[in-house]
Design a protein that fits this description.
With about 160 residues, this protein is an alpha+beta fold. The protein has a single domain, classed as Alpha-D-Glucose-1,6-Bisphosphate, Chain A, domain 4. The chain contains 4 helices and 7 strands; from the N terminus they run βααββββββαα. The chain has a 7-stranded antiparallel β-sheet. It holds the Pfam family AHSA1.
Length: about 160
């Protein structure tokens, strides 16, 4: 097992477009998150030091708040941000699905230009995890990978309409 995992996904769209739909809430609300969930953007400030704060809600469950804090943005090549579950005000809270999920994860996304395609390489790693959080993170890698793959499938479908 590893203390980080990598997800690679290739989109049939140019890099500038893929980067744009990752950075504008008017696009993100159409594809981000689990399929069939309600998505609401509370704050979108896409810059180094900026914040993306949103809620998502399954049809049969409770609302969850998530916050990203961007540390580095190099358009259209790279986005690095810290992600954590939050309350409506943006304060860090424990993950609603597992109290031992790491409080914060560091997410590094690199967008690689192909011939009319874009390959996204995303690395997710827990930030300063406890031993218990690290075990939970390692045990959840397959589930997290499936979640991101489902989200990226939705983005791939969304890009065909752009």
């Amino acid at each position: 097992m590893s203390t980080q995992f990598e997800i690679t996904y290739t989109f049939n769209a140019p890099r500038e477009l893929v980067f744009k739909v990752f950075t504008e809430s008017k696009h993100l609300q159409n594809w981000w998150g689990p399929k069939g969930w309600t998505f609401h953007v509370a704050k979108a400030d896409f810059r180094s030091g900026g914040v993306f704060h949103y809620s998502q809600k399954p049809a049969d469950g409770d609302i969850m708040w998530v916050k990203f804090v961007y540390s580095e943005i190099v358009a259209p090549e790279k986005i690095i941000y810290t992600s954590f579950f939050s309350d409506e005000e943006g304060n860090i809270v424990r993950a609603p699905f597992d109290a031992n999920w790491p409080l914060k994860t560091l997410n590094s996304m690199t967008f690689i230009e192909g011939e009319g395609t874009t390959t996204l390489s995303m690395i997710v790693a827990p930030e300063s995890p406890t031993e218990e959080e690290l075990k939970t993170f390692e045990a959840s890698q397959e589930i997290v990978q499936e979640g991101f793959t489902g989200t990226f499938n939705q983005l791939s479908e969304y890009l065909t309409k752009k």
